[in-house]
Amino acid sequence: MKSNFNKPFTQQEAIDEATIERVSALLRGGRLHRYNTLEGEISEAAQLEKEYATYQEARYCLACSSGGYALAVALRAAGLKPGDTVLANAYTLAPVPGAIHNAGGIPLFVEIDDAWHIDVVDLQQKAEVSGARFLMLSHMRGHIADMDRIVAICKAHQITIVEDCAHTMGARWNGIRSGNFGHVAAFSAQTYKHINSGEGGLLTTDDPVIAARAIIMSGSYMLYGSHGAAPDEAVFAQVKLETPNYSGRMDNMRAAILRGQLQSLDDNVRRWNERYRVLETRLSNSTAIDVTERRQNEEFVGSSIQFRPRLAVSGFEPLIANCLARGVDIKWFGAEQPKAFTSRYDSWRYLGEQEPLPQTLEVLSRTCDIRVPLTFEPADCKQVADIIAQEVEELQSAFAMTGRDESELSLEPDSQN
């Protein structure tokens, strides 16, 4: 009899009692809007901006309504004009091309390599011929590419780097925090990210003009002096009359929820990586599964793990069905139609016809992904990995014994599950 896993992959840890009390006090006071403060009072949103700028080792920070909003306003604040080409790695999630589209840019997707990074060779070629002035670099699923090479390419071609750090809050490359390589960075505080307010985003930069524009765009009116990590008044005077208001502020309640979690973020990074290593070790021990080894100069956050079952493409849906029947929720990036949070660059048809990216499609056709919630214990991670390994190995054995092609397999889960 096969064992089943019985914990949900979407359950987050409870909010701590001190934060609950802070939010309760805020609700009792009724001042939820970030600019609704008493004389001498610093809002929760402003305090979060100051604290996150310190954590991120950045000069300026803006608390936003969502990570997607932060990406779009980052592009606009960095000078994107309607119709500008934006280079972007083809392996990402739908809010990233959505943010480019929202900002008025036209994405030009770049191939990815076999380790899920942006392909620096294709980036170099497209930087040379496209005339693009922007790169939206998505550190997708926490995989940080060779930032030294990427920065050199972009510097040589005068390309502004906007970093999408939705999956790399707390991560570093060669000791430098993810988000501090480009001109401006965006982080997410959506439920499945590294700090959780249900929805929310943070923008960081060391550029005072980008910071001032972003703050005004977020809907500060002339109240930008009440922000916690903002440029001097003189910078706002340069841009305030030519910068639109897009109203994407974070409210005080979400900021209060995040401030407590920020204090425990580094410890949670350690806990995520402990669980990741359990999954990585067990999956790597299976001869039927490939797991890419993380590079030493990448201090990642293991809040998800990607792996490649050694199956033909037509074997992935039976694998997913069998694992789901045993309580293990695998996402597959190779499906032709979007499912749940997963989609491919060729399914974003509102962007128009895209250049074929055969290398990306081949990599994604074999890419499976699972979340690593902190509500899982290390023993849970071992059980999850055991179930995945068992199901992949059984499918391999079934193919070998029968000589059937995987396309002949039923999508019905094993009756023993």
Please describe what this structure looks like.
The protein is an alpha/beta fold. It folds into 2 domains: 17-263, Aspartate Aminotransferase, domain 2 (3-Layer(aba) Sandwich), CATH 3.40.640.10; 265-408, Aspartate Aminotransferase, domain 1 (Alpha-Beta Complex), CATH 3.90.1150.10. Helices cover 38% and strands 13% of the residues. The protein has 13 helices and 14 strands. The chain has helices at 17-29, 44-56, 67-77, 95-103, 120-130, 147-156, 208-217, 233-239, 252-263, 265-284, 316-325, 358-364, 378-402; strands at residues 60-64, 85-89, 106-110, 134-138, 160-164, 172-173, 176-177, 184-188, 201-205, 289-290, 298-299, 304-309, 331-332, 368-371. It has a 7-stranded mixed β-sheet with strand order 1-9-8-5-4-2-3, with helices on both faces. It has a 4-stranded antiparallel β-sheet with strand order 10-12-14-13. Strands 7-6-11 form a 3-stranded antiparallel β-sheet, with no helix packed on it. The radius of gyration is 22 Å and the shape is globular.
Shape: globular
Mean pLDDT over the full residue set: 94
| Fraction in helix | 25-40%
Strand order of the largest sheet: 1-9-8-5-4-2-3
Encode the helix/strand succession as letters: HHEHEHEHEHEEEEEHHHHEEEHEHEH
Structural class: alpha/beta
Distance between the termini: 8 Å
What fraction of residues sit in β-strands? 5-15%
Number of DSSP-assigned strands: 14
- Runs with pLDDT <50, length 5+? 405-417
How many domains? The number is 2
CATH fold descriptor of the largest domain: Aspartate Aminotransferase, domain 2
